[in-house]
Amino acid sequence: MMRRNLLLIVSAAALAFALPAAAQQGHYQAEYRLSTVVGTAFPWGKGGEIWANLVRERTNGKINIKMYPGVSLVAGDQTREFTAIRQGVIDLAIGSTINWSPQVKELNIFSLPFLMPDYAGIDALTQGEVGKAIFRILERNGVVPLAWGENGFREVTNSKRPIRTPEDMKGMKFRVVGSPIYNDTFTALGANPTQMSWADAQPALASGAVDGQENPLTIFTAAKMHTLGQKNVTLWGYVADPLIFVANKEVWESWTPAERKIVKEAAAEAGRQVIQLARKGLVAPDLSMISQVEKLGVNVVTLSPAEREAFVKATRKVYQKWSKTVGQDMVSKAEKAVAARKQR
Ligand code: X2X
């Protein structure tokens, strides 16, 4: 009996040594690395700054979050961010659902063309059953989901001509991001998509290696895409990418319950602010963001419902194909939530 106890003690001690420093409560890293794609000139990066500041203040500097924009912890390859969080190369992240969808296929739900018709449609998913289901899936994938944020509705831009119909996109070269669903969508529209990282996108636009891209208007203005030849914007609102605040599991478990509460509440607060910033000037009656883009000398096309419908039709097969990848149950839940949403 004594020998058994001794063995238990010895193995417990060995286990304690085997655990990395991060996993022991009361041990703090000098800094916690927070990954984002873009910096503080963008709502997304602002969200990171807000989160870091709130946590630093409320933990009296014990949890010191340092932001690494440009997904620099994975050498700019945003599609590897999720794996790096899981492995502990990244401690915290605010990530786009698009960039993590290669590892978490259900996140492609937000990339199904024309699923979300408006901002209430995004909220119907993230703030409802679908959002909860996505968080459970992220947990099963070994990260700790904390809050939702938003990048925004991704509008199509190009250097060639105004886009009003799918035919206008024929043969145009577009930079697309993250998930292969974007290759399928742009191919279905008759365009020529090439997947590349955000870091590579800007030089490719500047040199004319690609004609166009798709991103929220807040990204367009902060990255000054009008100086990268992007003189045409079409507001088609085909997809929107929410952001998700997450923590590496071991790092999370190294914090006390009180600290976890602080970090989670701060993420929720920062998330709400990011969503506000991402929508600023884009929700009627305040459409100042659109006039701001026009003032840059950019031609902004707003589609009539019938014109928009032509894009919906042309991408319907992609929607159906990728619904199977996401899971038909989840897609049905999402469609019901969108249909039942409260319109503002
Ligand atoms: O790369 C993009 O287009 C960006 C910045 O929007 C994302 O990370 C999804």
Give a verbal description of the structure:
Helix 2 packs antiparallel against helix 11 (257-279) and helix 7 (181-188) runs antiparallel to helix 14. The protein has 344 residues and is α/β, with parallel strands linked by helices. Mean pLDDT is 94; it is low at 1-22. The chain has 2 domains: 27-150 and 242-279, Bacterial extracellular solute-binding protein, family 7 (D-Maltodextrin-Binding Protein, domain 2, 3-Layer(aba) Sandwich), CATH 3.40.190; 155-239 and 283-342, D-Maltodextrin-Binding Protein, domain 2 (3-Layer(aba) Sandwich). It has helices at residues 2-18, 43-58, 81-87, 97-100, 119-126, 129-140, 181-188, 198-207, 217-222, 249-254, 257-279, 288-294, 305-314, 316-326, 328-339; strands spanning 32-35, 65-68, 92-96, 143-153, 155-158, 173-176, 192-195, 212-215, 232-235, 240-248, 299-302. The chain binds (2S)-2-hydroxy-2-methyl-3-oxobutanoic acid. (2S)-2-hydroxy-2-methyl-3-oxobutanoic acid binds next to helix 4.
Write the layout of secondary structure elements.
Layout: H1 2-18, E1 32-35, H2 43-58, E2 65-68, H3 81-87, E3 92-96, H4 97-100, H5 119-126, H6 129-140, E4 143-153, E5 155-158, E6 173-176, H7 181-188, E7 192-195, H8 198-207, E8 212-215, H9 217-222, E9 232-235, E10 240-248, H10 249-254, H11 257-279, H12 288-294, E11 299-302, H13 305-314, H14 316-326, H15 328-339
Parallel strand pairs: 1-2, 1-3, 6-7, 9-11
Antiparallel strand pairs: 3-10, 4-10, 5-8, 5-9
The structure holds (2S)-2-hydroxy-2-methyl-3-oxobutanoic acid.
